[in-house]
From TrEMBL, chain A:
Enzyme Commission number, as recorded: 2.3.2.23
Record function comment: Accepts ubiquitin from the E1 complex and catalyzes its covalent attachment to other proteins. In vitro catalyzes 'Lys-48'-linked polyubiquitination. Involved in endoplasmic reticulum-associated degradation (ERAD). Required for sterol-induced ubiquitination of 3-hydroxy-3-methylglutaryl coenzyme A reductase and its subsequent proteasomal degradation.
Keyword ATP-binding recorded: yes
Keywords from the named record: ATP-binding, Nucleotide-binding, Transferase, Ubl conjugation pathway
UniProt name for this protein: Ubiquitin-conjugating enzyme E2 G2
Domain UBC core stretches: 4-164
One GO process term, biological-process aspect: ERAD pathway
The organism of origin for this protein: Scylla paramamosain
GO MF entries: ATP binding; ubiquitin conjugating enzyme activity
InterPro entries, sorted: Ub_conjugating_enzyme, UBC, UBQ-conjugating_AS, UBQ-conjugating_enzyme/RWD
From TrEMBL, chain B:
Enzyme class: transferase
Protein name, per record: RBR-type E3 ubiquitin transferase
UniProt-annotated location(s): Nucleus
Entry keyword annotation includes Transferase: yes
Xref: Pfam families: Ariadne (PF19422), IBR (PF01485), IBR_1 (PF22191), UBA_ARIH2_N (PF26000)
GO cellular component: nucleus
GO terms classed as biological process: protein ubiquitination
Reactions catalysed, as given in the entry: [E2 ubiquitin-conjugating enzyme]-S-ubiquitinyl-L-cysteine + [acceptor protein]-L-lysine = [E2 ubiquitin-conjugating enzyme]-L-cysteine + [acceptor protein]-N(6)-ubiquitinyl-L-lysine
Length: 168, 476
């Protein structure tokens, strides 16, 4: 099974390098192991995460693309849909059957025709528009809803941190 | 006797017996006499399979779809054939779309990537595929057969069966059995798939339930989903058909669940407060309860008293049995929050203590039953009556257990019942039942001294009280 996964991952890597989507860079951490990738995501413009460069890692299962990969930010994050340890919780990373957060059925789920590119694009739109109804970080979801100014302040601090800038 | 006469009298004879027979049927109709009557059938998996296949065949014949699609439709519609046939006649496209058999929009000619030389590639593994080694569902999403079978493998390992969807992006079209099975190569996986699908079908069928007994493969069939007692013929477990937990009449499933959750939260306090022993109210010797009966007689001073309220047993005649009833403080609304909390705990403890006490009594009465068996053996050996002569004692013990079980389950019901005439009536009936059960228990424990007629009379009274209470208050 790993053979077919490797072929898919190599093809996806090639496509991502030839036609990189805006604000996203991704590829295997080292060329020896195609099942562990690193990604850099630029915070979407016009949002509180604007200009930040957020590193994350993706771990692919041996039966990829039949099962989805796992994604985890390796920098400090504060977001309703990201666990405090950096794990990303969005519908596209879940198979249709499992439903830990009770997503609405319309949300896009994992299917073998999805791709790394689609996952990363979903993560960018998740950064821009958190889904506070199915939250992985309850504190962040609460603050996003009730105290947007405070949330924006924390986001700005995180952005500066990813850019190695001193506190403003 | 002429032939004519003979015929005539034969008719007469038949007519007489038919009438008699009708009356008999009327008389034994269990639904009228027994509020707990519930007709169920315990089926093996082969029998269930046959039952399901019959529905599948009927539907597949009446709307002309493959058995595999008929099965999927029945599963999605709770095995309601009428509903499916009506929906099919009305708008067959809508029916097939909502059951995820057809896609909401007609399929595109080809969704897979076309390569320069006209050969297509599988969008999952990106390997070239030909029409021979590829396949698609009604949605037209084409994938190679290898990817399909790997997809099914992954899904089955995750426990999916009837719910396996197409691999297309956001495509919810379901893969029917006759599409999945030929693509599964490993016999182990085929078996697993069929096993999971079978459980899914039983769960979606409104008339079927798995027996909750450990490792029991029996499926129970009942016409209606009601909170009634089921006895599994295979593993002998008893359970409520509706919720699958221990049988709990007259309390309904939801109230019982609330009660058990509450008990799990609060019973530590209750255990702490209600010690296992009590002092005799007259001579104050410490007494441990060793029988199920609440009518206690102190072995030291021979004082008769009630284990529950420690009052004199003389006041516990059938007209004046009050210690099952909780007396609410009428001025509670004006008391402080602290007092209210204390009152709430007191109320809970009152019901919990009685519930727990009957549960303990049930266990102690199991010992009584063992003792009865021993005593019967002794008597038979000593030549006082035959084994058959003493059977009524075993019947009495079984009846006592059944009645005490119902009585135990009246306490959660009473706890959640709102004050009013209905609660008054309930508690009156509960008190009556309680009193008669204690009488029966007392008589069984002292069977040698009790006249058989007297005991059987008591059995009759207790069972009547129990059925009256159930008839008036059982829900669901």
């Amino acid at each position: 099974m790993a053979g077919r996964a490797l072929k898919r991952l190599m093809t996806e890597y090639k496509q991502l390098t030839l036609n990189p989507p805006e604000g996203i860079i991704a590829g295997p951490t080292n060329e020896e192991n195609f099942f562990e990738w690193e990604a850099l995501i630029v915070g979407p413009e016009g949002t509180c995460f604007e200009c930040g460069v957020f590193p994350a890692k993706l771990i692919f299962p041996p039966d990829y693309p039949l099962s989805p990969p796992k994604m985890q930010f390796t920098c400090e994050m504060f977001h309703p849909n990201i666990y405090s340890d950096g794990r990303v919780c969005i519908s596209i990373l879940h198979a249709p059957g499992d439903d830990p957060m009770g997503y609405e059925t319309s949300a896009e789920r994992w299917s073998p025709v999805q791709s790394v590119e689609k996952i990363l694009l979903s993560v960018v739109s998740m950064l821009a528009e958190p889904n506070d109804e199915s939250s992985a970080n309850v504190d962040a979801a609460k603050m996003w809803r009730d105290d947007r100014d405070q949330f924006n302040k924390i986001a700005e601090r995180l952005v500066r941190k990813t850019l190695n800038l001193p506190h403003s | 006797m002429s032939d004519e006469e003979m015929e005539y009298s034969d008719d007469d004879f038949d007519a007489y017996y038919e009438e008699e027979f009708d009356r008999d049927v009327d008389h034994v109709d269990p639904q009228k006499n027994d509020p707990e009557y519930f007709h169920v059938a315990c089926l093996t998996d082969t029998e269930v399979e046959r039952l399901l296949n019959e529905s599948v065949e009927q539907l597949s014949n009446s709307i002309q779809v493959t058995p595999s699609l008929a099965k999927l439709l029945l599963h999605m519609h709770g095995w309601n054939q009428m509903e499916i046939v009506a929906g099919y006649r009305q708008d067959c496209n809508r029916l097939l779309t909502t059951a995820h058999i057809k896609p909401p929009t007609p399929p595109q000619p080809s969704t897979s990537a076309q390569q320069g030389d006209g050969e297509t590639t599988c969008p999952v593994c990106l390997a070239p595929m030909s029409p021979d080694n590829s396949s698609h569902l009604s949605c037209g999403h084409m994938f190679c057969k290898d990817c399909w079978s790997k997809h099914f493998e992954v899904q089955i390992v995750h426990g999916a069966s009837t719910g396996i969807e197409c691999m297309g992006s956001n495509c919810q079209v379901l893969a029917p059995e006759d599409f999945v099975l030929p693509l599964l190569k490993l016999p182990r996986l085929r078996e697993k798939y069929q096993q999971y699908a079978f459980s899914d079908y039983v769960r979606s069928h409104p008339q079927l339930r798995f027996c909750p007994g450990p490792n029991c493969n029996i499926v129970v069939q009942a016409k209606e989903c009601r909170a009634k007692r089921v006895n599994c013929t295979a593993c002998k477990s008893q359970f409520c058909y509706r919720c699958g937990n221990d049988y709990h009449a007259p309390t309904d499933c939801e109230t019982m669940k609330r009660w058990l959750t509450k008990c799990a939260d609060d019973s530590e306090t209750a255990n702490y407060i209600s010690a296992h022993t009590k002092d005799c109210p007259k001579c104050h010797i410490c007494i441990e309860k060793n029988g199920g009966c609440n009518h206690m007689q102190c072995c030291n001073c021979k004082h008769d008293f009630c284990w529950m309220c420690l009052g004199c047993w003389k006041t516990h005649g059938s007209e004046y049995y009050e210690c099952s009833r909780y007396k609410e403080n009428p001025n509670i609304a004006h008391e402080s929050a602290h007092a209210q909390a204390r009152e709430a705990l007191k109320k809970y403890l009152h019901y919990y203590e009685r519930w727990e006490n009957h549960s303990k009594s049930l266990k102690l009465e199991e010992e009584t039953l063992a003792k009865i068996r021993e005593r019967i053996q002794e008597k038979v050996m000593a030549g006082t009556g035959t084994w058959i002569d003493w059977q009524y004692l075993l019947d009495a013990a079984a009846l006592l257990a059944r009645c005490r079980y119902t009585l135990q389950n009246t306490y959660p019901f009473a706890y959640y019942l709102e004050s009013g005439p209905r609660k008054d009536l309930f508690e009156y009936q509960q008190a009556q039942l309680e009193a008669e059960i204690e009488n029966l228990s007392w008589k069984i424990e002292r069977a040698e001294m009790t006249d058989r007629g007297d005991l059987e009379n008591q059995m009759d009274i207790v069972e009547k009280r129990r059925t009256t209470l159930l008839t008036d208050f059982q829900q669901g």
